[in-house]
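Chapter summary example.
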Amino acid sequence: MGLDRPIFYRFPPSVVFTRKERCINRLHRKSIVSYYSLGFTVNDRRIFIGDIHGHYDGLMNLLEAIAPGANDQVYFLGDLIDRGPQSAQVVEFVRQSGYTSVLGNHEQLLLNALPQEGMSSQALHAWLYSGGQTTIASYSDTSQLLDHAEWIRTFPTYLDLGDIWLVHAGVHPTIPLAQQTPQEYCWIREEFHTIPKPYFQDKLIITGHTITFTLPNVPPGGLAQGQGWLDIDTGAYHPRSGWLTGLDMSRQQVYQFNVLQNRIRTIPLMEAVIKVDPDQIVRRHSLVHI
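The structure predicted for these 290 residues follows.
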């Protein structure tokens, strides 16, 4: 099957969530989840890892379950650092493994706090407030932190893989790509999640950044699907979730390790995805600001 032909799955009732969550899933049984045929061999998987936030042990358990081979391509959606206890170990592992990560908003906070020339106390305070203190504590010496910062400066803001487009937060629906900046790619939320039609007609946008259970009707650990996008940040650091997600698009499998419960699970992709109604996001966003 060609790369330009979508595969459609009907959303089935989930067998991995609670009774309440299964009821939510049944509300979406008529929704259609669209993915694109990858045309890869079984030994050429494309694997996408959601926001890790310093949970190195969780990442190791997740990758043990995924078991990527030498020919598999592993990509990270950014936010390797902050909030969790082992940011230095996460960054060193990704670097030594030769894997690719896009820039997350927490990496941008770090780079703003540690510019190549001088230092901004305001940017430093912003980073520390957002979880940078745990990152600093994970480094045994400043030289390694500065070395990692220089490597993080090489992170792309997005990756175009042909039929899949990776970015940490999303894109602004009304701004041409050439005019968008890390502010959009690393920080955007509602403007992206409420787009009424896909930004790309031939690409699925995969993101992290927004914890999926903060979107309407998505339970902790569920993946969120909107118009042309799929969010896989399941909130590894958050006490309501603890799930760290790896998505194997080639095998249509979701691997998850819970850093709070110390357990692993594997879910068929079509059972893990909840379709998000953009109108509900708009209404909820409006209520928050009344």
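To summarize the output: Residues 121-137 form the longest helix (17 residues).
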